[in-house]
Amino acid sequence: MKRMRIITLLLALVLCFQPADARKKPVIGIAPGYSGAEYSRLHRTYTDAILRAGGIPFILPQVSDASQASEMLRHVDGVMLTGGVDVNPAYYGETVFNETVEVDSHRDTVDFLYAHAALDGRLPILAICRGEQLLNVALGGSLYQDLPSQKPGPVLHRQKEDGKVPTQAITVSKESMLYRIMGSERLMVNSFHHQAVKDPSPLVTVTALSDDGVVEAYESNEKGRWLLAVQFHPEMLLRGDDAWLKLFKAFLKATR
């Protein structure tokens, strides 16, 4: 018993003298959508995924300049850019293509502030759907504004089924981080978009494609930078398949 008490005391002392960052759960800043400039909103699947993976979700507030965005991100360990309406094509030098393009200029402003602050601060980034598109633009790439008109193909990229139901296959590069995380060259994913990456940023490598050639994932070219962007919604798929928890755990692990 005495020996056990000594061991317990030693373990307690080790934990006490560990750096605070080694003991705490990772805090993930999540960029939400907005209802105008007055309200922020976020589907709970994003926060649920971070909680299940062992992190603390922190919904990022609306900011108005780069210094505010940088200040907010000093309090988090990683950033998640989320889904929503279309990115204004003015950010990649185009005008609105047709009536299907729905933009939110206020959200664009805030999201780009957070994206650039996260990149400048070298924080791990997980970008989902609109987040994937916005991050590509932030890094100098461009988008298809309306896939059915500009890149027609056999795959239905706006499914009617629930988000936890995978409806299309994607092919994953064996050299990619996504392959190392999920362990497969073929993944079944969901699809809720009509825009997609057209010209990938020169700073990223495309790592997954749908069967009709639409970019479904990319990652940073820069060694040592953890950046994973996916066109599908893994946080929704997680409600139907626990295998997707591996992706969020890998994201949290990168923040440590």
Quickly describe the structure.
With 256 residues, the protein is an alpha/beta fold.
Describe what this molecule looks like in 3D.
The protein has 256 residues and is α/β, with parallel strands linked by helices. The chain has a single domain (24-255), classed as Class I glutamine amidotransferase (GATase) domain (Rossmann fold), CATH 3.40.50.880. It is built from ten helices and 13 strands. It has helices at residues 2-16, 20-23, 44-53, 66-73, 105-120, 130-138, 147-150, 177-182, 234-237, 245-255; strands spanning 27-31, 33-35, 39-41, 56-59, 78-81, 125-128, 143-144, 168-172, 186-189, 196-197, 204-210, 215-220, 227-230. Helix 3 crosses helix 10 (245-255), helix 4 (66-73) crosses helix 5 and helix 5 packs across helix 6 (130-138). It is globular, with a radius of gyration of 19 Å. Mean pLDDT is 92; it is low at 6-15.
User: How many whole angstroms does the radius of gyration measure?
Assistant: 19 Å
Specify the biggest β-sheet.
9 strands, mixed
The SSE string, one letter per element, is: HHEEEHEHEHEHEHEHEEEEEHH
State the distance separating the first and last CA atoms. 36 Å
**What is the CATH fold-level name?**
Rossmann fold
Instruction: Please report the number of helical segments.
Output: 10
Unreliable spans are 6-15
Overall mean pLDDT stands at: 92
What is the CATH first-level class name?
A: Alpha Beta
Number of strand elements: 13
Number of domains: 1
Structural category: alpha/beta
Helix content: 25-40%
CATH architecture name: 3-Layer(aba) Sandwich
Query: CATH superfamily name?
Result: Class I glutamine amidotransferase (GATase) domain
Describe the strand arrangement of the main beta sheet, using strand numbers.
4-1-5-6-13-12-11-8-9
